[in-house]
């Protein structure tokens, strides 16, 4: 039959602890139900600090460009973006106690006031800020993008908040900008992480072969940071199969890879490893001060025994693939 819900002592004491436990439950985003209580301000602060500590700064930071020099300062940027977020119902629903979504605003000296970087509370707000690109400030359309050195999360980009209320009210463009939401220096940074691999055995070497060859070596390098995603971000094989371009986690790792693999043998062929032709222009963009330039290690970086062993292991893995 149906349980009475009374404890051994004949009263409701047996079910009270479970019910009280449900009442004490704090939901992830502060939403409440008939069984929940709203988290305290201290609870939300702890949750927010934990989220910030686990999320790299680059994922919470955005580039703000095309600013009117001498007119748009830190206070104006703070006020503008705070006003935008406060006009979003999704923001109040997700961050019920948050009055200031901005952690900091930085104007790099080399930018002469033409651009700034804004650090948000978390990566969701950063992704949402990207959707605001194109709004007018002091008579100029503001360009918003990712900063140099940005690496997408391993699981993919996070979902932004709904900005349709801003579009409908005319605060931001009615349609998303049909431009790349990446600042110029971010494109240059990607090029500086890219390396050319040539003289490959067409039909034998594919993208998986290159990945298996490189990953064991890269993960032994001091430049590798597990928290910043995979060591090898992307491999693009040419249609001829004779060469490819590899994007690494960072520019320093890409530089060191050249001295490790150039003129080594893969499937009986001496492969050529070096900078692609776009590297010189990318390095020039970074040096112009659009953002902090990447510090690239010397081409003649010392190859340690660990690197050589890793390269051998990678080559062995590639050779094993050829026998399948």
From TrEMBL:
<dbReference type="GO" id="GO:0008380">
    <property type="term" value="P:RNA splicing"/>
</dbReference>
<dbReference type="GO" id="GO:0006397">
    <property type="term" value="P:mRNA processing"/>
</dbReference>
<keyword id="KW-0694">RNA-binding</keyword>
<dbReference type="GO" id="GO:0003723">
    <property type="term" value="F:RNA binding"/>
</dbReference>
<keyword id="KW-0507">mRNA processing</keyword>
<dbReference type="InterPro" id="IPR000504">
    <property type="entry name" value="RRM_dom"/>
</dbReference>
<dbReference type="InterPro" id="IPR012677">
    <property type="entry name" value="Nucleotide-bd_a/b_plait_sf"/>
</dbReference>
<dbReference type="InterPro" id="IPR035979">
    <property type="entry name" value="RBD_domain_sf"/>
</dbReference>
<protein>
    <recommendedName>
        <fullName>RRM domain-containing protein</fullName>
    </recommendedName>
</protein>
<feature type="domain" description="RRM">
    <location>
        <begin position="193"/>
        <end position="278"/>
    </location>
</feature>
<keyword id="KW-0508">mRNA splicing</keyword>
């Amino acid at each position: 039959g149906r349980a009475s819900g009374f404890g051994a002592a004949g009263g409701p004491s047996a079910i009270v602890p479970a019910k009280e436990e449900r009442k004490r439950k704090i939901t992830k985003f502060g939403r409440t139900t008939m069984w929940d209580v709203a988290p305290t301000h201290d609870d939300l602060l702890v949750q927010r600090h934990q989220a910030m500590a686990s999320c790299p700064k680059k994922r919470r930071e955005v580039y703000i460009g095309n600013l009117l020099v001498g007119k748009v300062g830190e206070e104006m940027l703070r006020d503008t973006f705070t006003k935008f977020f406060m006009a979003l119902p999704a923001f109040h629903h997700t961050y019920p106690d948050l009055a200031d979504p901005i952690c900091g605003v930085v104007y790099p000296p080399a930018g002469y006031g033409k651009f700034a970087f804004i650090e948000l509370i978390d990566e969701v707000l950063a992704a949402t800020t990207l959707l605001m690109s194109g709004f007018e400030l002091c008579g100029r359309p503001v360009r918003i993008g990712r900063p140099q050195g940005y690496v997408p999360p391993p699981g993919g980009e996070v979902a932004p908040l709904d900005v349709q209320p801003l579009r409908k009210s005319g605060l931001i463009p009615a349609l998303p900008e049909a431009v790349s939401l990446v600042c110029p220096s971010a494109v240059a940074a990607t090029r500086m992480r890219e390396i050319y691999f040539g003289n490959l055995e067409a039909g034998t070497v594919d993208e998986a072969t290159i990945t298996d060859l490189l990953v064991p070596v890269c993960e032994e390098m001091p430049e590798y940071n597990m928290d910043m995603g995979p060591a090898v971000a992307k491999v693009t094989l040419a249609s001829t199969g004779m060469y490819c371009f590899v994007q690494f986690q960072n520019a320093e790792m890409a530089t060191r890879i050249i001295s490790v693999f150039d003129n080594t043998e893969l499937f009986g062929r001496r492969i050529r490893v070096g900078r692609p032709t776009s590297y010189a222009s990318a390095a020039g963009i970074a040096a112009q001060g659009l953002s902090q330039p990447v510090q690239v290690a010397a081409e003649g970086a010392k190859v340690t025994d660990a690197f050589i062993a890793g390269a051998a292991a990678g080559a062995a893995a590639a050779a094993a693939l050829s026998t399948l």
